[in-house]
């Protein structure tokens, strides 16, 4: 049996949002279309980020001040805590996609195998990846897409004949 490629399993032509779209409108669109993440594309169609449910939930959480230790009449911040604080604070006060989105988007290629993507989802604890072909966003593959393959009794792992 031939392996299943991402391009065969993905949702093509995904809904996208513009960087200037409001967080409220993004949340409404996610609920209306029953999706957990939306790629953010600029006016040229280039992928610049992704807004997920997790990005939006940060807005309703308490942002904790960075951890620090008092030392010789000064403060030493725990490594990484200032960066985490800044990131959560930025998202907590965000009003647009560009302010709340995750900028360093992990993408997959259309020619990758579904097995590879399922493995990435499990290891990275991520539910969706934008799909790129020749540098352009052409789809999105989600855990639901992988589950659909399984429900149709299509093996996610492939063996070339």
Protein model, in words:
This protein has helices spanning 6-9, 23-33, 53-57, 81-92, 97-100, 114-124, 143-151, and strands spanning 11-12, 37-41, 47-52, 68-71, 74-77, 108-109, 128-133, 136-142. It has 161 residues and is α+β, with helices and mostly antiparallel strands. The protein has a domain at 6-61 and 96-151: CBS-domain. It starts with 5 loop residues before the first helix and ends in a 10-residue tail after the last helix.
Helix content range: 25-40%
The H/E string reads HEHEEHEEHHEHEEH
CATH architecture of the domain at 6-61 and 96-151: Roll
Coarse structural class: alpha+beta
Strand segment tally: 8
| Text of the CATH class of the domain at 6-61 and 96-151 | Alpha Beta
- Termini separation comes to 6 Å
Tertiary shape: globular
**Biggest sheet record:** 4 strands, mixed
* Contiguous runs where pLDDT drops below 50 for at least 5 residues: none
Mean pLDDT: 83
Q: Number of DSSP helices? A: 7
Say what the CATH topology of the domain at 6-61 and 96-151 is.
CBS-domain
Q: Identify the CATH homologous superfamily of the domain at 6-61 and 96-151.
A: CBS-domain
Strand order of the largest sheet: 1-8-7-6
Rg estimate, integer Å: 19 Å
**Strand content of the residues, in percent?**
15-25%
Q: Tags for this entry?
A:
single chain; 161 residues; alpha+beta; CBS-domain; two-stranded antiparallel ribbon; 8 strands; 22% strand
């Amino acid at each position: 049996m031939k392996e299943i490629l991402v391009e065969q399993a993905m949702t093509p032509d995904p809904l996208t949002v513009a960087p200037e779209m409001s967080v409220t409108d993004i949340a409404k669109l996610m609920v209306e279309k029953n999706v957990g993440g939306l790629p953010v594309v600029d006016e040229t169609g280039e992928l610049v980020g992704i807004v997920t449910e997790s990005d939006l939930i940060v807005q309703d959480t308490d942002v904790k001040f960075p951890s620090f230790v008092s030392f010789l009449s000064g403060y030493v911040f725990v490594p990484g805590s200032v960066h985490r604080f800044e990131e959560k604070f930025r998202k907590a006060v965000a009003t647009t996609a560009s302010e709340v989105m995750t900028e360093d988007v992990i993408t997959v290629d259309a020619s990758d195998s579904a097995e590879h993507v399922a493995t990435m989802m499990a290891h990275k604890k991520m539910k969706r990846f934008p799909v790129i072909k020749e540098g352009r966003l052409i789809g999105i593959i989600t855990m639901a897409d992988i589950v659909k393959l399984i429900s149709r009794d299509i093996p996610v792992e492939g063996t070339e004949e």
